[in-house]
Amino acid sequence: MPNTTNKTGTPATLPTSVLGRNGPNVSRLALGTMTFGAETEEAEAHRQLGMFVAKGGTMIDTADVYSAGVSEEMIGRWGKNRGGLNDLVIATKGRFAPPLGSNGASRRALVRSVDASLRRLQVEAIDLYYVHGWDRYTDVTETLATLSDLVKAGKLHHTGWSNITGWQLQSIVSTARSQGLPVPVALQPQYNLLDRGIEIEVLPCALENSIGVTPWSPLAGGWLTGKYSADVFPSGATRLGEDPGRGVEAYDLRNTARTHAVLDALRAIAQRHDRPMAHIAIAWLLSRPGVASVLLGARTAEQLDANLATADFQLNCADLAALTKVSAPGLPSYPYKFVQDWSEMDTWWTLGT
Is 341 part of any domain? Predict the structure, then answer.
């Protein structure tokens, strides 16, 4: 049961969950640090880290490409100043080309990337290491064997994958099992009320294989806070104000009728509960099957503190159903809708007999 507190406070200890079948026990709200070194300077980053741990947070998530390794360096210096990071779960990622690392998921690339991350984080082992994306030029067996060797060498404790498709995830799991290699304990995809694409293939595959899901972008790049409107182009010190074409949350890409229908429903539920819209969006995501921990990223400690207050809040069944219905993206007509229709017909025939 989540700890209870008022709508502006945060529990002393955040609820926890086990990642996958045999992964680490982590706080259900994790600290994402992509802003460190880019939108957040070191003193403010250290303030966020201190606040997160003081509130009971245990998982800190970074990557070797966040600010070209600077995010990992900031965490490393903060950890050294507090006497180490052994009481926390430190997650990082490798696959792309950071300074002192290497591009790809080959043995050569991953060994170099892991060693570089260990130096920047100033730790002897990384608790959870994600391959940041599929490498079509490297046989997945090589990647998995390398990860296994790094675990045996004591440099990694657990492994996961990020930004992959359903068939890729199943290929990873099947290959690992056939070769006697460790199966990943975690998957880190984008997942929120505006992007539910993983529900078609990726999430069912993760559930089938008991892999914990740790979504990034729970607030859809700020859209689910209600800060952007249909008829006012973003400006000022916000992500889209500074870069309206930014990635998957780009203004022109997400400024749609469906988005604003979701925001209207979110706003109505938030007003009824006297909560920020962000709390409602995060609570919905925490209720989804397989979701073990949600990554919260923030520019400032105040933003982080506000979102950590979601930990004590749960939506009722009616609210969850309303949000799930209004945000439903629908299924492509083939094969998904076709298969669903036939499944429903099978059910009808069964009930009819």
Answer: yes
C-alpha 102/C-alpha 88 separation (Å) is 27
CA 39, CA 217: separation in Å to the nearest integer?
16
* Cα separation values, 212 from 26, 144, 183, Å: 11, 18, 12
Range of the domain at 221: 16-352
Considering the domain boundaries, does residue 81 fall inside one?
yes
Tens of pLDDT, residues 245-304: 566 666 677 889 999 999 999 999 999 999 999 999 999 999 999 999 999 999 999 999
Q: Position of tokens 């300077």?
A: 41
CATH of the domain at 47: 3.20.20.100
Q: How many domains does the chain have?
A: 1
What end-to-end distance do the CA atoms of the chain give, in Å? 42
H or E, element range at 59: strand 59-61
- What letter represents residue 71's amino acid? S
